[in-house]
Amino acid sequence: MTSGSGQGRRWFRRRAYINPFETLDAAGAATCTHLDAITAVTPSSDGCEDCIAAGEREWMHLRLCRTCGHVGCCDSSPQRHASAHARGSGHPIVQSYEPGEDWMWCYVDEVYVDAPEPGPSPSHP
Ligand SMILES: [Zn+2]
Ligand SMILES: [Zn+2]
Ligand SMILES: [Zn+2]
Q1: CATH no. for residue 97?
Q2: Does residue 73 lie within any of the structural domains?
Q3: Residue 18 scores a pLDDT above 70
Q4: Which pLDDT belongs to residue 10?
Q5: pLDDT at residue 26 tops 60
Q6: Domain-embedded: residue 51
Q7: Is the separation of the CB atoms in 36 and 13 below 8 Å?
Q8: Which ligand is in closest contact with the Cα of 67?
Q9: Domain tally for the chain?
Q10: The whole model's pTM is what?
Q11: Which of 121, 90, 120 is nearest to 107 (CA)?
Q12: 55 near 35, Cβ under 8 Å?
């Protein structure tokens, strides 16, 4: 009887059938369920409003909350006010507030968000 080795081969073929790279794009675009949180907002400031309120201007990059217009500093900045705002307010989606960048990020799903429609880029000068 040699049936044992046959079962091992079948198990290996099933695992190899799953290709993680094939599903990445679809998952990245479809995972965020917060697209209705994206609104037309007016940026509250031309810098991180929480850093400015604290008398500091040491942020690395700026993020604009697409629900209320809060401008906060990114996770590479010392204070991380953008993610603090997202947690504290429940506003999930920020847009880059850097010149020439208009990508969006969902803090809840931790994915980049494809905007339903490309709005005017509110990047600061
Ligand atoms: Zn989301
Ligand atoms: Zn800040
Ligand atoms: Zn907000």
Answers
A1: 3.30.40.10
A2: yes
A3: no
A4: 58
A5: no
A6: yes
A7: no
A8: 3
A9: 1
A10: 0.70
A11: 90
A12: no
